[in-house]
């Protein structure tokens, strides 16, 4: 078996494990465990909490003491045990604690997956820039496969999704032990705790342009996981209406939601063109206004007729909403940050989006949904329009406050 194929398997499993529960978990918590909107939001908030500091801390461990591939393996094996534990928990306090522990282990593996892939490809003499993207795309395919399996097996409202994810987390952990070793880099071992956590990059807030960028990264980061949290629960609730109960969108809501991830794989290929043609500010604005349409189309969508067309358009536009912000934002940081703190600046970008932003979005969306839930019935139309209005305000304000002049030549240099 070639090493590139073995890395394809690793990347496939890495996101397969996540896809097995991420989209359907909110539905399981609400429908089966009867958690409130605030409780569901609080549990998903653990994803943001874990993203604040754990990638940096485990990065230090991989830099100084444990080889990255061995740490990657260990974390997934421990993660399997925690997922198995989570499947048995039925109380809010118990499940909150276990999922916090699990995500403190899982979220750093996204970066560790890249580290291990880069290390092995370099050791084997491959061109990382050329050879890694076709490998990484199998991670998204793995995510989609897991979503389809959970949906087709009817496990979207069952704890079987967690048992299933636990089994494959264990498989991945054991599989990673068979991969070539990655050496501990002595130069990286000099990185301080402040640098590893991305805290030294806070100096960028002295620059008005960067301060505005990071603040809006946090505000838009609040939107990034909302439909992943609530999308399947929203579609599942149409089943309470007799006319919709046997429609595809209700019975196979996981498959419908997975069109969003398919869209990601297509839009990511268009980013170089859009960045060079329009510049980072306009591309980020495209993302922000795409979120307005993402939420707004959910608000007017339904499982039949034009309503289903609106839902499909929402799934398709998700690729632009998600990819254009994450990748263009990262490239902006790469272009603007001093080379000495570039890695820390990327860490700060992740903290603001997947850390603080995700925490605000998870808990805030839970509060909004609880406000518009009466006698167990959620007013999804109003809920989605509120999220759309929020994204619109963020986009318009960013357009007025963020000043940036596009330089096509500079953009070309960054991409290469």
Structure commentary:
With 416 residues, the chain is mostly helical. It folds into 2 domains: 1-194, Growth Hormone, Chain: A (Up-down Bundle); 198-416, MFS general substrate transporter like domains (Growth Hormone, Chain: A, Up-down Bundle). Helix content is 76%, strand content 1%. The chain has 18 helices and 2 strands. A two-stranded antiparallel ribbon has the order 1-2. The model has no long low-confidence stretch (mean pLDDT 90).
Classified by CATH, the class of the largest domain is Mainly Alpha
Radius of gyration: 21 Å
Proportion of residues in extended strands:
under 5%
The geometry reads as globular
> Would you tell me the structural class of the helices and strands?
mainly alpha
Number of structurally distinct domains: 2
Query: Main beta sheet, described?
Result: 2 strands, antiparallel
Helix content: over 70%
| Lateral arrangement of strands in the main beta sheet | 1-2
N-C termini distance: 31 Å
The CATH architecture of the largest domain: Up-down Bundle
Poorly predicted ranges: none
Helix count from the secondary structure assignment: 18
Order of helices and strands: HHHHHHHHHHHHHHHHEEHH
The name CATH uses for the topology of the largest domain is Growth Hormone, Chain: A
Question: In summary, what is this structure?
Answer:
This protein has 416 residues and is mostly helical.
Please tag this protein with its features.
single chain, 416 residues, mainly alpha, Growth Hormone, Chain: A, 2 domains, two-stranded antiparallel sheet, 18 helices, globular
